[in-house]
């Protein structure tokens, strides 16, 4: 599919409309909206043939396989969540945090992705924010911040500046410090090639 063909399939990008991908939200192509509608209709009306759960889980498995192939993962490594915010929240809630644990994030994270870490502060978790310059991370400052961290969270492509962070390098720094890494890469697929195995993030 060419960029012109894709543009023609997005009603919001009609004649005379200029769209700049700013990374927070984008209009969907018609085929995405149609596929979502078909899934809902099949789920609601196809239950008489089998049951809604078989249909849903079969679809989830097929989606996991396609996403895995697209981002260089195994299907079993793909978790489907309501949104990136929901996924980050689930990870934050799944860890058995102790008072004094450290989470490190950059100042480039989406506000919704910051909330789970803010909530942990009330449980005695220290949340450190790595300050950046024009959407760029100083790796020395990053290494200093993550030295005793339990988890490090950052975006692959920043929603504020559109800058691409050196994901594999930042993951290596965090791993060397013994920290888990959570990469918010929601802006990446379809914009840049993604191979999560090369990144090495958790």
TrEMBL record:
Keywords linked to the UniProt accession: Aminotransferase, Pyridoxal phosphate, Transferase
Entry GO MF terms: transaminase activity
Pfam families registered for this protein in UniProt: Aminotran_5
Domain Aminotransferase class V: 19-202
Protein name: Aminotransferase class V-fold PLP-dependent enzyme
Source organism (scientific name): Halorubrum tibetense
Organism lineage: Archaea, Methanobacteriati, Methanobacteriota, Stenosarchaea group, Halobacteria
């Amino acid at each position: 599919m060419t960029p012109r063909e894709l543009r023609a399939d997005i009603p919001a990008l009609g004649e005379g409309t200029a769209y700049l991908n700013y990374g927070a939200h984008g209009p969907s192509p018609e085929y995405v909206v149609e596929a979502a509608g078909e899934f809902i209709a099949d789920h609601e009306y196809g239950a008489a043939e089998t049951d809604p759960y078989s249909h849903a889980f079969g679809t989830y498995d097929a989606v996991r396989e396609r996403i895995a192939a697209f981002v260089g993962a195994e299907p079993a490594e793909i978790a489907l969540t309501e949104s990136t915010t929901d996924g980050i929240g689930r990870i934050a809630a799944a860890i058995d945090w102790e008072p004094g644990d450290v989470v490190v994030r950059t100042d480039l994270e989406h506000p919704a992705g910051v909330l789970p870490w803010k909530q942990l502060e009330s449980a005695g978790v220290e949340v450190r924010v790595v300050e950046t310059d024009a959407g760029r991370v100083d790796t020395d400052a990053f290494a200093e911040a993550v030295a005793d961290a339990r988890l490090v969270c950052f975006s692959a492509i920043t929603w504020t500046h559109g800058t691409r962070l050196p994901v594999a390098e930042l993951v290596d720094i965090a791993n060397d410090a013994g920290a888990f890494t959570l990469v918010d890469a929601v802006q990446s697929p379809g914009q840049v090639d993604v191979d999560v195995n090369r990144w090495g993030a958790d």
